[in-house]
Amino acid sequence: MQCALVVFLMLWLGTGFARAEFLLVPETHIIKPGSRFNVTLFLPNDSSEERVLDLPVRITLRARGVENAPEIALSPVDPDQPASTRIAPGAFYRAKYAGTLPDGLTGNLVLELLEFEGTLLALAVTEPETAVVSPATTSAAQERNAKQVRKQEVADAAVGPTDRDAARFASAFSPNEPNYFSAGSSGETNAKFQVSLKFRLFNPDTQTPFLEKLYLAYSQTSIWALGTSSKPFYDSSYRPSAFFLDDDVSQWPFRNWSRLGFQAGLEHESNGKDAADSRSMNTIFVRPTFTLPFWKDYFVSFAPKLYDYIEKEDNPDIAEYRGHGDYLIKVGKVDGLQLATTLRKGTSKDPYSAQFDLSYPLKTATFGNLGGYLHLQFFEGYGESLLDYNRHVRPQFRIGLMITR
After folding, report:
1. Average pLDDT value over all residues in the chain
2. What string of H, E and C letters represents the secondary structure of the chain?
3. What domains sit in the chain, N to C, each tagged with a CATH number?
């Protein structure tokens, strides 16, 4: 059951966000034939890196299931709309577009994008009302309003709840830490995988900067003993968390050539075992992120996650082996080869750990335009799993697929 859940999440991570590359939301689902209508384009950044995305100068739609349906062209409402925009990780950009519905299109229409990946757009195209309603005909007005509501429901149903929920789901969820599945051997063949998501609690329309940056997250890191007969999971680390995250602190004085992010919150970590194998702790943490670009699209970033233990009853000496910080250093090209190094140093003399994650995009002609990244991982030191936090493990090399980084 656990394996099936993990495989589902890994597949979803690889496909779910790409499916909602563009999200179009109409100002109203009910319009008159041949009339002009407005939509809002939501352009999300579902990656873990800041991205510069081009804005379409034209959006073309076509009615699905209508023979010889004409194309519907939408243009930006703002004549000064920029050609591209910079979007922080997990955020999105909104832009207004408008167009005219061609004559002859009526009824409940489902419009699909022609040039881009995106969700379907549902419209109910109705003939204009001809009756004059006086104040005395309240019941008739209410009946028409009810019909409009029913037409709205029919239009929404044409797209279906699954498509709408998927769009909302994708706009609120984003990767948290890297997501990957890699395998190797260090005496016995094993695999290590990580699933990590964060959920934005409040919609950006709240217009409250602090609330818009509150998140819930869940991360799971597991080691799968593939070399044994029953292939059990050796150990898993489950980490639910709640935090504040601002990827670009505007007050940073050198923001013209660098970027400062800030994260702070609470995290629980445990391995779900009992008795002597039980490991559990609660921490409070802060994580500033310093990013410096250099030469074209290359960058270097430093993101120390500094924490203190609120509760560590199952493993009271864990600070001696893990210390009070995870020091992440990342260097590479935004859309190219990247090396991420995570270092830990315990408070006692010897314990330390070092993990190196090298990733290269597979979305190139060389690799057949695959999704994700080729992933090479090397670990050396104490506590690759929570179960082994106080033991030095054998050096481990793995290779596999990184879905988000």
Report:
1. 82
2. CHHHHHHHHHHHHHHHHHHCCEEEEECCCEECCCCEEEEEEEEECCCCCCEEEECCCCEEEEECCCCCCCEEEEEECCCCCCCEEEECCCCEEEEEEEEECCCCCCEEEEEEECCCCECCEEEEECCCCCCCCCCCCHHHHHHHHHHHHHHHHHHHHHHCHHHHHHHHHHHHEEECCCEEEEEEECCCEEEEEEEEEEEECCCHHHCCCCHHHEEEEEEEEEEECCCCCCCCEEEEEEEEEEEEEECCCCCCCCCCCCEEEEEEEEEEEECCCCHHHCCEEEEEEEEEEEEEEECCCEEEEEEEEEEEEEECCCCCCHHHHHCCEEEEEEEEECCCCEEEEEEEECCCCCCEEEEEEEEEECCCCCCCCCCCEEEEEEEEEECCCCCCCCCEEEEEEEEEEEEEC
3. 19-168 (2.60.40.10), 176-404 (2.40.230.10)
